[in-house]
Amino acid sequence: MRIVVCVRQGLDGELGPFDAAAYEAALQMKGAEVTLLSMGAPRTADLLSRLSRLGAKEAVLLSDPLFAGVDTLATAYTLSLAIARLQPDLVFCGRQTLVGDTAQTGAMLAALADLTLVSGVMATPREEGDKVFVATREGERQLSLPALLTFERIHALRLPSLRSRAGEVKTVSLAALGADPTRTGLAGSPTRVIATAENEGGRRRCRFISPAELDGVVRASLGKRQEGIIPQNGCENKLPLVLSVGEAPLTYAKAVAERVTVLRDCQADAVIEAIRRDCPAAVLFGTDTAGRECAARVAAVLGLGLCADCTALETDGQELFMIRPAQAGSIMAKIKSRTRPALATVRTLSQESAEVVVAAGIGAAASLDRVRALAAHFSASLAASRRAVDEGLLPYDCQVGLTGKAVSPAVYIAVGISGAVHHVVGMSRAGTVIAINPDKNAPIFDYADYGIIARAEDLVF
Ligand SMILES: Cc1cc2nc3c(=O)[nH]c(=O)nc-3n(C[C@H](O)[C@H](O)[C@H](O)COP(=O)(O)OP(=O)(O)OC[C@H]3O[C@@H](n4cnc5c(N)ncnc54)[C@H](O)[C@@H]3O)c2cc1C
Question: Is the model's pLDDT at 231 over the cut of 80?
């Protein structure tokens, strides 16, 4: 089995947790020939060289000044040329990098390299004779090869053995790759960040209450979920026609369009046909797996810019301005596309999310039974901070935040969670947030409507 693992160096010089999981999964596949593939600055060679000590047969770095400034489409195009040469059976990618945080590149690469796409892989693929099986949250299925898998944060990367040697890193330039300079780097990137601002979203005015008031506050907050989108800044001039793929993006579409058509079929071919027929100014998709995969495929096939995970849209009647959190949610970026139609996935609230979610942080480690009882009392789902997951308190499926999932219940009760920005991005769209923490200065209270200054073990109800 030949496996190419696509990795990107993070701002800290290391691999992101999703790429690490993808590489570890490849190393766990017995007898596999693993190639590491990255696009980046020449200094990425040091990282690849270190990573090769873990067992990769070779490492390839696509590096050229003309590759700089890429967006996801240009990245996927450049990587697809290398994949065409390497001819692997499997390509492994992390779900997302922490630099771009778009979760789009894998799906675009699969479309451009003509690979079967399986998103959200939850375990190392299993081989049975010449068959390969892969598990996602939806269950296990047989793969048709060649395939591209995107991995959740399911494994930590092993450490090198003392005797292991670093392998050679082969650096490939734009000319050697045979890349079209108009399709890569900044020149080949249809999306542009035009402004950034500090993200003030998610901050709430906290009212401190006593533990005895908790029950009443929760009951009064039931049924009050947040509105689907952040209000627009009143778009006076609207785009003539916007295509909404499915019902989920409809509210966004109506906010920026004079006329909206809804396509109920979330298949790339049907969307491409509708684009060619109706020439909409923009096409909006939901952020569920089907919406993301469809959007990435349409962008790859038509060579269009795609902006992921928008939380607000604006227009001047000519252009669509797409606003999304960036840098772990600390800033909001305003982005436009120089190709038309503009494509965007828009964050819709997941209605399958439970009415009440009770989340445990590491501060609740000694009293998880109290957290479970609290959840049972409100018929709530359990969730967790990353530290709580890393310490084995609750499974990864429960993790809320940048490298976990986003939830939008009517009530989110955070017990023993400090309120790191990486956690807050996953719960900031809850209707009412209640934080329970003995430290009155914990940042979580800046993101909570109600606060209880108490230890988890003192919760009685
Ligand atoms: C790139 C990156 C991605 C990340 N992604 C995520 C993510 O997706 N999700 C996520 O959650 N984190 C994520 N993190 C980690 C994040 O930065 C924080 O480290 C993490 O959220 C902290 O978890 P915590 O609040 O449980 O622990 P801590 O920050 O240690 O906080 C524990 C809290 O418990 C309180 N406490 C102490 N004793 C008690 C008690 N007896 N009862 C009640 N409370 C008590 C303390 O006052 C403290 O506020 C990420 C970090 C990075 C760098």
Answer: no
Would you say the CB of residue 97 lies under 6 angstroms from ligand 1? no
Say yes or no: CB of residue 438 within 6 Å of ligand 1: yes
Residues 246 and 63: their CA atoms lie apart, in Å, by: 39
- Together in a domain, 122 and 245: no
Cβ–ligand 1 contact at 243 (below 6 Å): no
Residue nearest to atom 47 of ligand 1 (CA): 439
333 C-alpha vs ligand 1 centroid, how far in Å? Answer: 26
272 and 379 in a single domain? The answer is no
242-281 pLDDT tens trace: 999 999 899 999 999 999 999 999 999 999 999 999 999 9
For residues 27 and 155, membership in a common domain is answered with yes
Q: Which domain holds residue 141?
A: 2-177
Bridge partners of residue 94, in order along the sequence: 151
Residue pair 275/294 in contact by the 8 Å Cβ criterion: no
Exposed, middle or buried by CB within 10 Å (0-12, 13-18, 19+), for 216?
Answer: exposed
């994949």: which residue's tokens?
83
Work out whether strand 169-172 and strand 58-62 pair parallel, antiparallel, or are unpaired: parallel
- Cα–Cα distance, 22 to 228 (Å, whole number): 33
Give the atom of ligand 1 at the shortest distance from the alpha carbon of 388.
26
- Ligand 1 test: best mutation among 362, 425, 441, 458, most atoms within 8 Å of CB? 362
What's the CA-to-centroid distance between 90 and ligand 1, angstroms? 35
C-alpha of 427 from chain center:
14
- Which residues, in sequence order, are CB contacts of 195 under 8 Å at separation 6+? 333, 334
CATH of residue 15 = 3.40.50.620
Which protein residue has the closest C-alpha to ligand 1 atom 23?
Answer: 387
Please give the distance, rounded to the nearest whole angstrom, from the Cα atom of residue 264 to the centre of ligand 1.
Answer: 40
Q: Is the CB of 439 under 6 A from ligand 1?
A: yes
CA–CA distance, 261 with 216 (Å, rounded to integer): 43
Q: What is the pTM of this model?
A: 0.85
> What are the strands of the beta sheet with 191-198, ordered from one edge?
191-198, 331-337, 320-326, 312-315
List, as one string, the DSSP characters of 319-348: -EEEEEEETTTTEEEEEEESSSSEEEEE--
Neighbours of 351 (CB within 10 A): 9
CA–centroid distance, 150 to ligand 1, in Å, is 26
Q: What is the CATH number of the domain that holds 408?
A: 3.40.50.1220
Tens of pLDDT, residue by residue over 280-314, are 999 999 988 899 999 999 999 999 999 998 988 99
Do 281 and 218 lie in one domain? The reply is no
For residue 383 and ligand 1, the question of a CB distance below 6 A is answered with no
